[in-house]
Amino acid sequence: MAVELLPSSIICGDSARENKYSLMKTEQRKWIPGIGWTPSSNESAIDAQLVLIFGAADLLKESEPLESIRKMYPAAQLLGCSTAGEISGTQVSDDSIVATAVRFESTQICGAEVVLRDRDAILSENIVDNQRALDLAQIQFKVGKIDLRVVGQRQLALYGARTSRLHVQSEQLAQRVNLYLALGGSF
Q1: Is the pTM here over 0.85, yes or no?
Q2: Which of 8, 6, 36, 28 is nearest to 73 (CA)?
Q3: Which site among 98, 140, 145, 179 is 20 to 30 Å from 37 CA-CA?
């Protein structure tokens, strides 16, 4: 199946700028295992600011397709997720990756990356370590080796670790809501 390069222009109204219009250009590429990108990654690409990537979960774990996207669109912010079917043009397919590059004429794209999942894992280990330290301190207190002040310090350390993890989990949920709203969702 051949996929054509789909350049398009969409006129978008922006009420914040008193109904002036801005231009948005897009192009779409599809990656299929064993074939690669169609159209080929050698063809000229727009100077994209944003690339939306949707694909089969197993394929998104491979480094080659995503590395080639970064080479095609080095200045773009990448945003994507796994899907149960990818839409390319007017066709739906499975076991592929579809990348839609977007260039806005007068809109600036800014992105920030915070690896909250990694922080959550580290804080989870910290909670386990602090719980063990508290358990040990309680045993040492019972046998008279330490005083109650040390047990209290261990409890405070454990509560602090739990609070830090709750902050990270709260930030993860807030970012999910922000993404949902940015993609046009509402409450």
Answers
A1: no
A2: 28
A3: 179
Peptide bond before residue 39 is cis, with ω within 30 degrees of 0: yes
Q: What is the DSSP letter of 76?
A: P
> Dihedral of CA 121/122/125/131: which sign?
negative
C-alpha span between 57 and 183 (Å, rounded) = 21
Contact 25, 76 (CB under 8 A): no
Helix (H, G, I), strand (E, B) or coil at 97: strand
Residue 56 to residues 36, 81, 133: CA-CA distances in angstroms? 14, 9, 43
Retrieve residue 37's tokens: 């990108």
Chain center to CA of 110: 14
CA distance 163 to 127: 10
Q: How many whole angstroms separate alpha carbon 71 and alpha carbon 160?
A: 43
Give the CA distances from residue 38 to residues 35, 90, 97, 135, in Å, rounded to whole numbers and listed in that order: 8, 15, 11, 59
**Cα separations in angstroms, 29 against 7, 45, 74, 178, 181:** 10, 10, 15, 27, 26
φ/ψ of 87, rounded to 5, equals -100, 125
- pLDDT digit string, tens, across residues 42-91: 666 688 889 999 988 888 888 888 898 888 888 888 888 888 888 887 88
Nearest to 148 by CA among 130, 134, 132: 134
